[in-house]
Amino acid sequence: MSTWCSLLGRTDVMIANIDNAVENAEKNGAMGALLTDWEQYPRLESSAM
User: CA-CA to 38 of 20 to 30 Å: which in 1, 14, 18, 31?
Assistant: First the structure.
């Protein structure tokens, strides 16, 4: 996990991972991509805080 316990994440790793996923999806005939956020801790802007 590249963002484990990081405050802002690691944008360079994120972009490389998305680029790789989309490239492979296109090669295999995908019609789109779904980006999700699987966080461990509550968001700073979360209304639950």
Answer: 31
Terminal-to-terminal C-alpha distance of the chain: 25
DSSP assignment of 5-37: T-SS--HHHHHHHHHHHHHHHHHTT-S------
Asked if 22 and 33 touch (Cβ cutoff 8 Å), the reply is yes
Q: How far apart are CA 30 and CA 8, in angstroms?
A: 30
Q: What is the dihedral of CA 37, 12, 1, 5, to 10 degrees?
A: -80
pLDDT 10s digits, 1-45? 555 667 777 888 889 999 999 999 999 999 999 988 776 666 665
